[in-house]
Amino acid sequence: MPCLRFLVIVCSVLFSASSFAQNVENSSLPKVAANDNRTPAGLLTNGVLELRLTLNEGRWYPEEETAGHRDVYAFAEEGHAPQSSGPLIRVPQGTQIHASIRNMLPLAAKIHGLHSHPGDAKDVLTLAPGETRQLQFAPGDPGTYMYWASTSDKPLDEREQKETLLSGAFIVDDPRTKPEDRIFVLGLWSKGLGPDAEEILSINGKSWPSTERITLNQGETAHWRVINPTSSDHAMHLHGFFFTVDGRGDGERFEQYAVEQRYLSVTEHIDVGQTFEMTWKPERAGNWLFHCHMSAHMVPSESLHPTEVHPAAYSPEHDHTASMGGLVIGISVLPNSTATPKPTGPPHKLQLVISENPEKIPLYNLEVNDPRDPAAPDMKKKTSLLGPPIILTRGELAEIEVKNTTGDPTAIHWHGMELESYYDGVAGWTGSAQQTSPPIAPGTSFVARMTPPRAGTFIYHTHWHDANQLINGVYGPLIVLEPGQKYDPEHDRTFVFSIGKFAPFSYMLLINGNPEPYPVTLHSGTRYRLRFINIGDNASDLRVRLTRQDALVQWKVIAKDGADLPPALLKSSAADMGITVGEVYDVEYQADTPGLANLQIWLPSFPVMVTQPVNFAPAPAK
Description:
Blueprint: H1 2-23, E1 33-34, E2 43-45, E3 48-60, E4 70-77, E5 83-84, E6 86-92, E7 96-103, E8 109-112, E9 124-127, E10 132-137, E11 143-150, E12 167-173, E13 182-191, E14 198-203, E15 214-217, E16 222-227, E17 234-238, E18 243-249, E19 254-256, E20 263-265, E21 267-270, E22 275-280, E23 286-292, E24 328-334, E25 348-356, E26 364-369, E27 390-393, E28 398-404, E29 412-415, E30 445-450, E31 456-462, H2 467-471, E32 475-481, E33 492-501, E34 507-511, E35 520-523, E36 528-534, E37 543-548, E38 551-552, E39 554-560, E40 563-564, E41 572-574, E42 576-578, E43 584-589, E44 595-602, E45 610-617
Parallel strand pairs: 1-5, 3-7, 6-12, 13-16, 15-24, 25-28, 27-32, 33-36, 35-45
Antiparallel strand pairs: 2-3, 3-4, 7-10, 8-9, 8-11, 11-12, 13-14, 16-22, 17-21, 17-23, 18-19, 18-20, 18-22, 23-24, 25-26, 28-30, 29-31, 31-32, 33-34, 36-43, 37-38, 37-42, 37-44, 39-40, 39-41, 39-43, 44-45
């Protein structure tokens, strides 16, 4: 027993010594500055960038200095404060980079990404504590890249605590273009795993509500670059507008899409170590959001706000934007003199009623009252973990009264819809300084007005700061049809993927509100439009596939987020793809012969695959 106690003491001392540098705080540390990534580091003269970087320890304030801090490792320009994200490296193609980098940390560091692109991920620079190294290299091809470091010799997706903010943007410009854009580097400070894990999310070094407010003019073209050096993937969503995805990269290589291959999106998945570029034009004035659609990434950090774990009690005077946090950027679009055209003709009036479920699991029931009653039979089945479909017509004004008969306030966001800001559904933010969107208080109603400019598949869902509403079914499909078109279940089916509290069990992965969906009968020889919607709370890496006899079939992806794909991308492919949270895909599929098929979804974090049986029966005789 004494020997065992001695071994335990020795192991504890060794562990403490190895982790001491990661945990101890030092009140004399310099403040880590938020980097808006608008000013390149170094001195560019005659085609040569002279750059001096250091690795430092600093004190990072994700919000205001009164809201808590973390001691972290960060990159800095020599003689300047450390930054999060690290100093912006930005040069035209053809530049020569002469860099020195000094490690002022108490640990050795491995530095990735400081080389020519396309690059080799194994091309890594190792610096001992106190060591300085000189580098000379050409930046390589134009694109959006990153550089990062680790003091634990861990890969990007396993870094923890102090080392998690050691990353920065590396941009190589086409010398024929003028760099007029914004760069957003995502950040994730983390500690531990499982239910006791701590996370603090940031964009360019700050968490909402301290993130930068972006101001644009109505009709102004905006080009953005998004970089993810964090340990998690993200689902970046823009409210109110589509953006064009111009290219994507993995940190070492970047593919700039040809014009005919660029597609429209409102929610874009960005995996660990990836980058993408986007272009958009705000055509309507007001306040909007750009944020990660994962619920856990857009709420205040429990590490910084331990007393705000539970939603604050409702009051009309409460600042509801303070109940958001993390990966959220506010956008204000200033109006111009262009008048918004007013729709003509009588509006299509309908009602969405949110009520309490007497059974309590789930908490809510949703009902759509539409005098036209075009709901498809496959969506008419009563289920309390999926709202009924709302069917609108392209070009026709719709007035949707959201009636809240519950005891809880709510707000409904019309995901993917191009509408006026006031109706977008973010209480206390969308709208304007003169009139922001109100919460829908218990016992009250709010009328949302919209004239959809395109036909496609969209979502309505809660945007209230209470995760219980999303996991209890306050969402549903929103389908916009062409004028004169009817929703036809003989050729058109909708499948909503979510996570919810399913009685009598706990949280489960669901298809159309059910963890074991009833079989669906379709007909062979008929071409179907299958609409897929992912509205799981944090289901960022969900996958969907369609098989027959355990083999993938071929389908054709025809639309994303409600917008048709360009002709260059319309091709048959194996029926297996990722669909991130807040993302929508429409596919075409036709079974040539009768038989059973399985539509399946799964998540790495869920051990059980959910299967929707689809029986293709012979087409009825005409």
